[in-house]
Amino acid sequence: MEEVEQMTDVALVPEDQDTHRPLSKDPGFPGRGRRREWNGPLIDYKEVELIRKFLTTSSKLMSRKRAGTSTQEQRALKLAVKRARFLALIPFSGT
């Protein structure tokens, strides 16, 4: 019995090694909780001339690769085009 008790007292990991991961300064999922201030829309639906630069002759929205926009800019542009079309500032189809 004494031998069993002595074996349980022996540490399996050397004392100089830390078994726990170091705690990060920002717990949780990466990229979450770091909210930036909202600076307003990237593009406004009332800027018709700017929107037309990103439309083809058939009034289709250019691809990101062709227009050179980022994902966030492309989403804002898509929303601006939808709003401008609804208000009849730009046509739904080309002439």
Walk me through what this model shows.
By secondary structure, this protein is mostly helical. The protein has a domain at 41-95: 30s Ribosomal Protein S18, CATH 4.10.640.10. It has helices spanning 2-9, 48-53, 64-67, 71-86. It is elongated. The protein starts with a helix and ends in a 9-residue tail after the last helix. The model has no long low-confidence stretch (mean pLDDT 77).
Rg (C-alpha, Å): 29 Å
Structural class: mainly alpha
User: What count of helical segments does DSSP give?
Assistant: 4
Shape: elongated
Beta percentage is: under 5%
Low-pLDDT ranges: none
- Kindly, what is the distance between the CA atoms of the first and last residues, rounded to a whole number of angstroms? 95 Å
Determine the fraction of residues in helical runs and give it as a percent range.
25-40%
SSE sequence, one letter per element? HHHH
Task: Based on the coordinates given, report the CATH architecture of the domain at 41-95.
Answer: Irregular
* CATH topology category name of the domain at 41-95: 30s Ribosomal Protein S18
Describe the largest sheet.
none
Number of strands: 0
The CATH H-level superfamily of the domain at 41-95 is: Ribosomal protein S18
Q: How would you summarize this macromolecular structure in one to three sentences?
A:
Helix content is 36%, strand content 0%. The longest helix is centred in the C-terminal third of the chain and has 16 residues.
